[in-house]
Specification:
This protein is α/β, with parallel strands linked by helices. Helix content is 42%, strand content 22%. The chain has 21 helices and 21 strands. The model is unreliable at 510-525 and 644-656 (pLDDT under 50). The structure holds adenosine-5'-triphosphate and magnesium ion.
């Protein structure tokens, strides 16, 4: 409806226009006279204003306006505008016959005679209520969305223009990155990247990826306003209009530093757990193998000892036997280390003064290590004694010192020091003494450090290292109720820390080897009737041979049940020597059964490793496997077993 409508005289045209207008129901099309009185009315007008033609023709059109609009004279102004400017166009509320309102789009055109005189107005109205409601709803939801985004504090949500400059900023962005909106809007987002990432072109790459794939997603370090870093999860989406034109980018950033830390801690804990499970499994295996080897070597060593005494004095044969003995002894030393790693060796613990122990072994150390290294000791004036097996501890320190020397091929200084450490565990009594062996050698890389205490792990040439040194130290620390810590970096030397519990004053001392040696052996000189019990025929034969060589009579039993039967049948047994680990009845169970029926009969239990719970079998005599004939004799002597079968217990060694 461009320009003023001209009246035409053609009746056929007139009829056609009328038909057209009458058919239109989506638009109200009607005419007003020059004063605003309605002069025609189409079905569209009737449909959405509610008046039938006879109700409205002849009425003033101002009745379609609201009271407010009428009060401000809008109807008159509308006609005036149409008259003056040739058109009045407006959106606003109009009123239906039933008083309800609708949102109308209105055009009023003046109708002129060919001479230009105004004869009335054409009025076209459209009901836009629905469209307006939809627009309102859209606006409201956009506003809600804006408020939502604005209010989110856990995510930085903001937009970038096509070039990557920040165009808006929410609370989360402010909280996470530290900039207030006015400080950052208009700035390039590469500001949030680290120097290195900027140099590597990461910001540009991110936008390019978002452009190409529609989205960029990544985790990485970002920088806050104050320069601190946080670990961020970032999503960048390219935003396009309906026709695909790029409007900018939406960016969502989350601070996942805490989550990352937690994840890392979890991974570490898992790693540590699997490492300890692995060590446990290796320990079981090693312990099992070592146990069997122990028995075998005991038989070999025992037999060699007996053979040596029986063969004629032929130096060639003796030489061979000595070689065999030495080989077996080295094997026994290895199984000892394996048992130590598996925490399955018999510990003879006592209060040990570290400075004294180290001083006493300095000679040995210096001889073992050679002239290229110097040993330096640093001990505080007052240091409590530790609760440990002195011999094993010496072995451990020797192992550590040898490792330190091997790490310093050009020579250097090994520092042995000790410090008293409190106990973090308030419930536990006493603290620890931390013994450190430090070197300035080649050090270890991360992977070596991780595996160093594993049995058989060595970086030394074949034949040079068994890889059991640190395993032994580690097992000893564990079994002693302490711990072993290894610290090292490639090229920066190593420090091995052995933490051992402080000895409580007045604690009982386990019988030490020297006491064996000091024990008067005369009591065992007289011939005894000994019952030897072992399920392993090889070991049994060997034990029996030793006993017989010592001049005793030996009865043999292959099980606990058999032993009890022999005791029942033949009287006069002076002492029972039994293995601990046997199927069906253990040595300990056998000892209990014997204590019930023959309370006076002493029992000696041979244990290859810590097969008994600490404290179990208290008061019983024990012998570590593999044992030599001398050790067996000393033990029998120490038990003071007499041919009468009575036991005279040792006094004053705190062992009862
Ligand atoms: N002080 C140290 N400096 C550098 N590396 C060390 C040190 N101590 C141990 N290691 C590394 O740990 C590995 C394992 O040590 P471990 O004492 O258990 O066995 P080993 O010394 O190789 O063999 P063995 O002790 O039987 O002679 C070594 O091969 C070495 O790589
Ligand atoms: Mg070693």
């Amino acid at each position: 409806m461009d320009g003023p409508t001209r009246l035409t005289n053609s009746t056929s045209d007139d009829g056609r226009y009328r038909l057209l207008v009458e058919a239109i129901t989506d638009y109200a099309i009607y005419m007003l006279d020059p004063t605003g009185i309605v002069t025609s009315w189409n079905p569209g007008a009737e449909r959405f204003k509610g008046y039938a033609p006879h109700e409205i023709i002849g009425q003033h059109f101002s009745r379609f306006y609201t009271d407010e609009d009428r009060a401000t004279g809008l109807p008159a102004r509308a006609l005036e505008t149409a008259r003056r400017e040739g058109k009045f166009e407006h959106e606003g509320w109009r009123v239906r016959k039933d008083g309800t309102r609708f949102w109308a789009y209105v055009v009023i055109d003046p109708i002129r005679t060919p001479a230009g005189e105004i004869v009335g107005f054409a009025k076209i109205t459209r009901d836009l209520t629905e469209r307006r409601a939809a627009e309102e709803a859209l606006r409201a939801s956009q506003e809600q969305f804006r408020l939502l985004v604005q209010g989110v504090t856990d995510y930085a949500i903001y937009m970038l223009d096509k070039d990557g400059r920040v165009t808006n900023w929410n609370l989360g962005a402010e909280r996470i990155k530290g900039y207030a909106p006015h400080e950052i809007i208009g700035q390039h987002f590469s500001k949030f990247y680290t120097e290195e990432d900027r140099a590597a072109g990461m910001p540009e790459h991110a936008l390019a990826t978002a452009l190409e794939d529609g989205r960029f997603e990544k985790e990485g370090w970002r920088v806050r306003k104050d320069g601190t870093r946080f670990f961020a999860h970032v999503i960048i989406d390219a935003i396009r209009d309906n026709v695909g034109k790029l409007l900018g980018f939406a960016k969502i950033t989350r601070d996942i530093t805490e989550r990352r830390d937690a994840q890392q801690k979890l991974d570490q804990a898992r790693e540590a757990l699997s490492q300890s499970q692995k060590m446990e499994a290796i320990g079981q295996l090693t312990g099992g193998i070592a146990h069997d080897f122990n028995n075998l070597l005991m038989a070999v060593l025992g037999s060699l000892e007996l053979v040596r005494k029986r063969v004629p004095d032929d130096p060639k044969i003796l030489q061979l036997i000595d070689n065999a003995t030495q080989g077996a002894q080295r094997g026994a030393a290895l199984t000892k280390r394996m048992l130590a790693f598996a925490r399955r060796q018999e510990l003879k613990r006592e209060a040990v003064d570290i400075p004294t122990l180290v001083r006493d072994m300095t000679d040995l150390l210096q001889r073992s290590l050679g002239p290229t290294v110097t040993i330096e000791t640093r001990f505080p004036l007052a240091l409590p004694a530790v609760w440990a097996d002195a011999n094993q501890l010496e072995m451990a320190l020797l192992n550590l010192a040898v490792n330190a020397r091997d790490a310093m091929p050009e020579g250097g200084t090994i520092i042995v020091s000790a410090h008293e450490e409190g106990n973090d565990d308030a419930a536990a009594v006493g603290g620890f003494v931390r013994i450190c062996v430090s070197d300035t050698g080649v050090g270890m890389d991360e992977a070596t450090l991780q595996r160093a205490t594993e049995p058989f792990f060595t970086t030394k040439e074949p034949g040079k290292g068994t890889g059991l040194g640190l395993s032994m130290v580690h097992g000893l620390a564990q079994q002693s109720g302490g711990r072993f810590v290894l610290k090292s970096r490639t090229g920066e030397g190593s420090t091995a820390e052995l933490w051992l519990p402080v000895a409580r004053p007045g604690a009982a001392t386990d019988v030490s080897e020297e006491e064996f040696a000091r024990t008067d052996m005369t009591a065992a000189r007289s011939a005894l009737k000994v019952l030897a019990v072992d399920d392993d025929p090889l070991v049994l034969t060997n034990t029996a041979a030793m006993l017989e060589y010592l001049g005793h009579t030996c009865l043999r039993a292959a099980s606990g049940a058999q032993a009890l039967e022999i005791l029942r049948r033949s009287g006069g047994v002076d002492v029972v020597v039994t293995d601990q680990v046997m199927p069906r009845m253990t040595g300990l169970q056998l000892a209990e059964a014997i204590a019930r029926d023959w309370p006076q009969l002493p029992v000696l239990i041979a244990t290859g490793y810590a097969e008994m719970e600490p404290g179990a079998g208290a008061g019983l005599s024990r012998l570590s496997k593999p044992f030599t004939q001398g050790e067996l004799a000393a033990k029998l002597a120490q038990m003071r077993v007499g041919p009468t079968g009575r036991v005279i217990r040792l006094r004053g060694n705190g062992r009862e």
